[in-house]
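Weekly modeling sync, notes
Attendees: S.R. (lead), two postdocs, one rotation student

Agenda item 3: backlog of single-chain predictions. S.R. asked that every request posted to the team notebook include the full sequence so nobody has to chase files. The rotation student volunteered to paste the first one in as an example of the format we agreed on. Action items at the bottom.

Example entry:
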Amino acid sequence: MVAQARVRCIGQGQEGAEVALAEDPDQGADIVGPVAGSTGNGSLKAMLAAGKWGIGVDTDQARSLPEYSAAILTSAQKVIDVAVLETIKKNAGGDMGGENFVGTLANGGVALAPYHDLDAQVSPDLRAEVIQLQTDIASGAIKVSDYLK
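Predicted structure, as returned to the notebook:
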């Protein structure tokens, strides 16, 4: 089950915590995927306090927020160095830009972070399923939405 909640203002850690904990416990949400800067950080803090998990965003949040790492299953990372290197290669080849770089699993521009503190709780079967999903998404066998188009 996927539930969605919105915050009023980005950058409000307390509001993120309140939104994360306000979800109906009967819905069974044990993992949240918070975004919105420090608002999302507040959600991760709340999940830690509640003994639940979150999935970080943008960077490996188990490393950038080590105080919450026991609640961070993994993180959906933007692999910025790939975007920078690809831009440098294009510029060196005479293409001076003007277009966006879209990070994907296929071009290495996005990735999942390691499981860190929760590594032992991720079964081999689940790991294999995640790897297969990544492979299928990267190859195009599974289509994902592209909200930029």
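Discussion: group reviewed the output briefly. The two ends are 27 Å apart (CA to CA).
Action items: rotation student to repeat for the remaining queue; S.R. to check formatting next week.
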